[in-house]
Design goal:
By secondary structure, this protein is of the alpha/beta class. It contains twelve helices and 14 strands. Bound molecules: nicotinamide-adenine-dinucleotide (NAD) and (2S)-2-hydroxybutanedioic acid (LMR). It catalyses: (S)-malate + NAD(+) = oxaloacetate + NADH + H(+).
Length: 332
């Protein structure tokens, strides 16, 4: 029997990530090839005509799984009945801009959209915040949508996770699908800590630790980390716009694994509400290694954290605490 359609909200749908993301959702890349979807697309009035153009293209593409499209500038209409909300709308960082410069604009957007989601989304709606500063926007959304379970509010660090997999695969000249269990700790910013201490590669002789195969701690502890940390800025420098196709694809990976589960023995990175695991202060949206089962994520416990890693986990937590304070100062 055909499944009932799932309603998926994409805010900022007329923007660059939105334009890459909505066809992926309509093709079943986010929720599965047998899962019909109804797309809810929100943007702001100046983008209304462009949004309507995206809707026209969705119709023209005749996606078999796409059972309806709501394209609107009204947040209540956009949020009504949605099961999954991908929050891409916001003010993007441009070349030379610090992420903190865009904080105050995004805090007010996330405060008002939190209320619309809380009142009008379906029960148990899963929320993924993509727009920067992603962790702190998600935290603001959580604070102003108190009836949405905190486990349902997450932010995107899967792009950083995928970037780390990509760098290891290039360095070792192996398939990216054979690399697993990197970790992104902390903020989706240049203080994030891409950690390969528990990562491995599938080889004909079995799984081998990334550190053993790379055999260059100097590269792993410096250039690899900064390359992943700075990749977003490098894309902006090259394209003059922030990453879009990789962000959209990673947003699909994030929701797919959350809803459908992570493969046995594999974890992914998600920005989630911290509970004090790994001595990360509670009350932050912080990226952890997680596994997902039955639509729920759980932080992977018991991983050893060496001294270098400890410092890096604390540094990115410190930045998130400062962002949190700055966000709250924008509210008053
Ligand atoms: P974009 O400027 O092309 O699109 C943003 C869209 O949001 C625009 O269409 C704009 O009109 C819309 N918008 C603005 N305010 C809105 C509101 N209040 N409600 C609904 N829509 C609104 O930007 P983009 O390149 O698509 O990037 C979107 C965001 O994602 C940026 O904040 C960017 O920094 C961030 N980003 C995050 C990651 C990540 O990994 N977390 C990766 C790439 C980009
Ligand atoms: C990215 O990681 O590509 C983006 O978050 C960069 C940005 O600041 O928009």
């Amino acid at each position: 029997m055909a499944k009932d359609p799932v309603r998926v909200l994409v805010t900022g749908a007329a923007g660059q990530i939105g334009y890459a993301l909505v066809p992926m959702i309509a093709r079943g890349i986010m929720l599965g090839a047998d899962q019909p979807v109804i797309l809810h697309m929100l943007d702001i009035p100046p983008a209304a005509e462009a949004l309507n153009g995206v809707k026209m293209e969705l119709v023209d593409a005749a996606f078999p799984l796409l059972k309806g499209v709501v394209a609107t500038t009204d947040a209540v209409e956009a949020c009504t009945g949605v099961n999954v909300a991908v929050m891409v709308g916001g003010f993007p960082r441009k070349e030379g801009m610090e992420r903190k410069d865009v904080m105050s604009k995004n805090v007010s957007i996330y405060k008002s959209q939190a209320s619309a989601l809380e009142k009008h989304a379906a029960a148990n709606c899963k929320v993924l915040v993509v727009a920067n500063p992603a962790n702190t926007n998600a935290l603001i959304l959580k604070e102003f949508a108190p009836s949405i379970p905190e486990k349902n509010i997450t932010c995107l660090t899967r792009l950083d996770h995928n970037r780390a997999l990509g760098q290891i695969s290039e360095r070792l000249n192996v398939q990216v699908s054979d690399v697993k269990n990197v970790i992104i700790w902390g903020n989706h910013s240049s203080t994030q800590y891409p950690d390969v201490n528990h990562a491995s590669v599938k080889t004909p002789a079995g799984e081998k630790p990334v550190r053993e195969l790379v055999a260059d701690d100097e590269w792993l502890n410096s250039e690899f980390i900064t390359t992943v940390q700075q990749r977003g800025a490098a894309i902006i420098k090259a394209r003059k716009f922030s990453s879009a196709l990789s962000a959209a694809s990673s947003a699909c990976d994030h929701i797919r694994d959350w809803v459908l589960g992570t493969p046995e023995g594999t974890w992914v990175s998600m920005g989630v509400y911290s509970d004090g695991s790994y001595n990360v202060p509670s009350g932050l949206i912080y990226s952890f290694p997680v596994t997902c089962k039955n639509g729920e994520w759980s932080i992977v416990q018991g991983l050893s954290i060496d001294e270098l890693s400890r410092k890096k986990l604390d540094l990115t937590a410190q930045e998130l605490s400062e962002e949190k304070a700055l966000a709250y100062s924008c509210l008053s």
